[in-house]
Structures are given as C-alpha cells and as structure tokens.
C-alpha cells in the first residue's frame, strides 16, 4: 500500500464484484477514496464498503445508478461531488453480454448492450469532465475488451460497443490533450470472473471433462498464454495509468490478453 492517490476519489462503475471490484481495491490500496456502483443487495454492498474501509483506510461510498439511465448517471456524478469532492478517477467498467447471430439478435438485447457497454461511458464522461477540468487533473479509464480490437462471431452488440468505446477513448484523449486529464482504454482478454467460472463449470459438466481441461479448452480458443488475466493485473495497470509516469499515455487501447490480439 502507498499514498500515491491519497485525497483522490475514484468512481468505478460495475464495481460490486469481478473486474470492477478488483480495480477498486487496487486504487484504494494507493489511497483513493472509492465510489462503488453496481448490482447487489444492501447487505452485500455494505460488506464490500466496510471491507474497503477496513483494509485500506479510505472512504467507500455507493451509488446505485442504473447505467442505462442518463439522469441516474448525472445524479451519481453529483453525489460524488457532494460526498467525496468530485471524481478524479473515472473507471467505466459496467458491462453486459448477450450472444446470438445477427439475424436472431433481439432488438431489446442490442439496445441494452449498447446502452450499458458504450452509452453509459459517454454519459459518465460528459458529466464528470467539467469538474475534472476545474481541478486540472484527472484520469479516465475505459474498460473495453480484446473485443474492442478484434471480433468474434455471435457477439455483434458487444463487439460494436467495445469498438465504439475504444473510439470514444481516442476522441476524449484528443479533446483533453492539452490538459492534465488523460483518457485511455484497457482491453482485457479472458479474466477469471464468477461469470467465466460458470462457463467453465458448465462446459465441464456438459462434456464430462475436468475443470482444468475445460479451462484449457476455453482459453485455447483465443488466449495463447493459456492463462487467465487476473483482476490484480488489471488493477495494477489502472494504477499505472493514474501515475505521473503515464502523463503522456493518451488515447491508448492497452490490451492485456495473453497474446489474443497478437495473432
């Protein structure tokens, strides 16, 4: 633990579990106060807040903004201003997935994936930028995906959203290029989250294979290292992007994917 981000506030969307929570922990370990957002019952969220406060000695708050609703997002940014002095570090991590061929893709699922995986980031950035510009320093980190750089079949909405998020990252980076605000994207490959573990469990059960074999088969389809990216590694990259060493890292789409997009 260090105090490199002491006095800063980090808003991490989709941070009550998985990648978002891992990044929140990494930023809190550097001294940042944390504003959580995401799904979960009150008791679970309270436990997460208490854990962050006890472990890292920082403030932890929660806002339950529905990331499909621009008014909720605006309220969350105002909440950050009122409770924590504004947003210094914005990590856009909220996301959902749906898989189907284009001709079979339900319209409502397309709209939901685009809203949460792309439009929500536009709205958080739009609302947070004025306060960031007043402060003269900020970090915007968009959690895209290897699918922000390459495609896979049956993931039209997700791939379109993540490619769009990489494009949005570049535009914001250019518009803030002469300021102390940077905007970059992290593009993870397979990360062992609870959702991915369920996929491994299902594959093992359906095909009568061991969990290890199911894991290797899943990874071998895309990720040459045959190892998952960890949330701690993603958190470490986020911390670097918040550091002075990354002052001139602007508009990058940084893949951490075990070689996925190198193929």
Explain the layout of strands and helices.
Elements (H helix, E strand, L loop, with lengths): L8 E4 L5 H12 L3 E4 L5 H15 L3 E3 L7 H15 L4 E4 L14 H29 L2 E6 L12 H20 L5 E8 L5 H14 L3 H10 L10 H11 L11 E4 L7
Helix pairs in contact: 1-8, 3-4, 4-5, 6-7
Q: Compute the number of strand runs.
A: 7
The CATH superfamily title of the largest domain: NAD(P)-binding Rossmann-like Domain
Number of helices: 8
CA-based gyration radius: 18 Å
Class from secondary-structure proportions:
alpha/beta
User: Strands across the major sheet, in which order?
Assistant: 3-2-1-4-5-6-7
Q: What's the number of domains? A: 2
Q: Per CATH, which architecture of the largest domain?
A: 3-Layer(aba) Sandwich
* Helical residues, percent: 40-55%
- Please give the largest β-sheet: 7 strands, parallel
The H/E string reads EHEHEHEHEHEHHHE
**Approximate strand percentage:** 5-15%
Tell me the span between the first and last alpha carbons: 36 Å
Mean pLDDT: 97
Overall morphology: globular
Provide the CATH top-level class of the largest domain: Alpha Beta
CATH topology of the largest domain: Rossmann fold
- Unreliable runs: none
Features of this protein?
263 residues, alpha/beta, Rossmann fold, 2 domains, 7-stranded parallel sheet, 8 helices
Short précis:
Helices cover 48% and strands 13% of the residues.
Question: Could you please describe the fold and organization of this structure?
Answer:
The chain has 263 residues and is α/β, with parallel strands linked by helices. The protein has 2 domains: 9-190 and 230-262, NAD(P)-binding Rossmann-like Domain (Rossmann fold, 3-Layer(aba) Sandwich), CATH 3.40.50; 192-228. The chain is 48% helix and 13% strand. The chain has 8 helices and 7 strands; from the N terminus they run βαβαβαβαβαβαααβ. It has a 7-stranded parallel sheet, sandwiched between helices. The longest helix has 29 residues, at 107-135. The chain is globular. The termini are far apart. The mean pLDDT is 97.
